[in-house]
């Protein structure tokens, strides 16, 4: 879901978007709920397949946006050499009076949970895009 929302948000920019997980089942497609919720937002994910993060991906990335503090910590353990690239997706937006909250994991929680996750991700995109644009200007 994060990849789809980020792709849509970045469609008029030069930002390249991809995703990978710290505990992904390689080759899995997006869940039915994810595809349905995103399709309503004009985002297509039919060809999406999950994959595990690796050092090559991290080397190429300018920034890595983690969904949860736990994911960020796993990346720091697995690939500490890239830790300056790691951020929480919600590091750049205030939600419920807090910055840097975890994106909720909707798996197994039904459609309302997927809609909430989509709402959180969409709210985070403005801050992420601003962060990326500032990085490009500084380069």
What is the subunit organization of this protein?
single chain
Average pLDDT reading:
93
What is the CATH H-level superfamily?
A: Response regulator
* CATH domain topology: Rossmann fold
CATH class: Alpha Beta
Rg, rounded, reads 14 Å
Main sheet characteristics:
2 strands, parallel
As laid out across the biggest beta sheet, the strand order is 1-2
Label the structural class: mainly alpha
Number of domains: 1
Low-confidence stretches: none
Task: Produce a short descriptive summary.
The chain contains 5 helices and 4 strands, in the order αααβαβββα.
Tell me about this structure.
A hairpin with a 2-residue loop joins β3 (94-95) and β4. The radius of gyration is 14 Å and the shape is globular. The model has no long low-confidence stretch (mean pLDDT 93). It has one domain: Rossmann fold (3-Layer(aba) Sandwich). The protein has a two-stranded parallel ribbon. Helices cover 43% and strands 7% of the residues. With 139 residues, the chain is mainly alpha-helical. It is built from 5 helices and 4 strands, in the order αααβαβββα. The longest helix is centred in the C-terminal third of the chain and has 28 residues, at 111-138. α1 packs across α5 and α2 crosses α5 (111-138). It has helices spanning 2-9, 32-39, 55-60, 69-78, 111-138, and strands spanning 64-66, 86-88, 94-95, 98-99.
């Amino acid at each position: 879901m994060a990849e789809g929302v980020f792709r849509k948000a970045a469609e008029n920019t030069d930002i390249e978007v991809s995703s990978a997980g710290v505990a992904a089942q390689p080759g899995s497609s997006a869940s039915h709920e994810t595809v349905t919720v995103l399709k309503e937002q004009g985002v297509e994910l039919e060809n999406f397949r999950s994959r595990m993060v690796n050092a090559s991906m991290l080397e190429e990335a300018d920034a890595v946006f983690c969904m949860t503090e736990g994911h960020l910590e796993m990346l720091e353990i697995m690939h500490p050499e890239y830790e300056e690239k790691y951020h929480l997706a919600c590091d750049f937006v205030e939600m419920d009076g807090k910055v840097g909250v975890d994106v909720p994991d909707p798996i197994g929680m039904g459609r309302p949970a997927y809609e909430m996750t989509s709402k959180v991700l969409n709210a985070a995109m403005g801050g992420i895009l601003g962060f990326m644009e500032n990085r490009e200007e500084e380069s």
